[in-house]
Design a protein that fits this description.
Blueprint (H helix, E strand, L loop, with lengths): L2 E6 L4 E11 H18 L3 E13 L2 H9 L10 E5 L3 H13 L7 E4 L2 H8 L7 E2 L4
Parallel strand pairs: 2-3, 3-4, 4-5
Antiparallel strand pairs: 1-2, 1-6
Helix pairs in contact: 2-3
């Protein structure tokens, strides 16, 4: 599976981590799963991590569609961070950020997980896999 969703119960952070080749369908799957899990877990923050992506096989059209969709985090005051180390993924993440800024005012795009943890003011989060109930 090209993605994994994990949760740090102590800091209440949900993280979706993509790896390898990522397609439109996989982005959409994670978006739908994220909505369900956020409803169950009520996290204080979310991270979408593209650090291990080797091939971008998703399109700008999917980014537009997701940016127009209802945000995963129901509370716009909660921090959402995209980790996008490569130029292409960073550009797509920034496009999502700009398109969705009206409904996602606390979305930030960074280059590394260390930057994300610094924004969240956490050290050494302990993530565990989660499932949908």
């Amino acid at each position: 599976m090209p993605y994994q969703i994990v949760y740090d119960r102590t800091n209440r952070i949900i993280r979706a981590r993509f790896e390898g080749r990522v397609t439109d369908d996989e982005l959409m799957d994670v978006y739908r799963l994220g909505q369900k899990l956020v409803g169950q877990l009520d996290p204080q923050a979310g991270i979408t991590d593209f650090s291990d992506v080797t091939t971008v096989a998703f399109t700008p059209e999917t980014i537009y569609e997701l940016a127009a969709a209802k945000p995963i985090m129901r509370d716009p005051g909660r921090l959402v961070i995209f980790v996008a180390p490569t130029p292409h993924v960073y550009g797509m993440a920034r496009m999502f950020e700009i398109l969705g800024e009206g409904t996602r005012p606390n979305l930030h795009v960074v280059r590394s997980l260390d930057e994300a943890y610094k924004l969240l003011n956490v050290q050494g989060p302990q993530f565990e896999p989660v499932g949908i109930k």
